[in-house]
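QA checklist item 7 of 12: single-chain prediction sanity check.
[x] sequence parsed
[x] length recorded as 106
[x] structure emitted
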Amino acid sequence: MLVTTTPTVQGHDIKKYLGVVCGEVVVGAHLGKDILASFTNIVGGRSNAYESTLRETRDDALAEMTEEARKLGANAIVGTKFDYTVIGQNGSMMMVAVSGTAVTLA
């Protein structure tokens, strides 16, 4: 399934708009990652633990959205948008939401 952030696909006409599709995933941080991230904050650098979790969460949200589009008979999703939000008490959870428009391309 083609997923793009653009509203059109170069070289293809949109034959039919099937509606908005979404995928949302919420994950909780855990103590081990928090400790590693705290250490990274002190010494500087990137937090591989959080980056890995963020990538996995984003991929899961994309998979959820594309499965929803597939059920509608789509072969592409256009206008894809990602939202990242920290939620929960003391920001203990992270939500990745992705949405777009399911379409069939000619």
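[x] summary fact logged: The CA atoms of residues 8 and 64 lie 22 Å apart.
[ ] second reviewer sign-off
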